[in-house]
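fyi for ur records
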Amino acid sequence: MPVISAPHAFNEGDLFVDLESICGHALYLKCEAFNFAGSIKLKAANEMVESAERDGLLTADSVLVESSSGNLGVALSMIAASKGYRFLCVTDSRCNLSTRLLMEALGSDVHIVADQDSNGGFLGTRIEYVRNLCASDDRYVWLSQYTNPGNWTAHYRTTAPEIARRFPELDVLFIGAGTTGTLMGCARYFREWHRPVRIVAVDAAGSVAFGGEPGRRMIPGLGMSMRPPLLDESFVDEVIRVEEPDTIRMCHRMARHGFLFGGSTGTVVSGATDWLSRHDTTGLTAVAVAPDLGERYLDTIYQTNWLQDLYGDQVLDTGDAAQPKAKTRTKTEPLPREPKSASRAPARRRSP
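which gave:
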């Protein structure tokens, strides 16, 4: 085991779970939560902070500020505490209580917005608050995960190569879509790879990231109430939208086999399982990315009263044999697609 002096220096990137016995299809799950921040967001947080330091945007008087539904806020809290920065996370009422307590335990301040934006979400309100804060005091430095190229560069440099080393014959990759940092970083990497890889984005129903009408979303993590500025749909072959009850059922399904994963992971696995059930998977190598574990969802997804209040008494009644019914949008090209050229050099980050 390594010996480290900073918490962000450790991240286990080579752990995969074979889900065939749970999902009934050959599917490997890349587990990204085994670090001191507890989620995949550590990679983006570290890349964005180090980029801001290289560009001279951070000083001893700086106060980091970011809009986050939870996991990035925890990762930035941890890094800020390690490096001696102050950090303010702007979040909303959907942020899990345990996540807010984690940020505060690490010394961060947390501001919770209550007003919804025009799309029925909170993202627009959170961003407006951050912008007004930065305009009022130049000590605040907004990393802007929604526009910062470091968000996707982190996964281009780490997540995608980790998958490629373990699965050199990869055929299809399922990635959850939030800010689309993980999606864009991995998609860019595999566009340049030695074989075609089908990139399937998994989004939450009610999200408008790929268009459509906004809807209620109670599980933080995936989905956006605006189009992600980082998103380039030319790198995405297919989009699957997963209803929240299917996310919940998949989380409980995996928990019954001893794997306690978070809401984002439940969404990705539900979407992947649906896709695999509708395709000929003979000889197919499929991988999904798991962004989080389940401890931060104990008072929501894994809490009976919360589930019944929001989704009704029957939300968990579907048995293991049932398949999730995700909505799919597919491009016209066949599987697998032909690879297209793209520049391998990641873009440099501009000041937020």
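The domain at 41-142 is CATH 3.40.50.1100 (Rossmann fold). thats all i got for now
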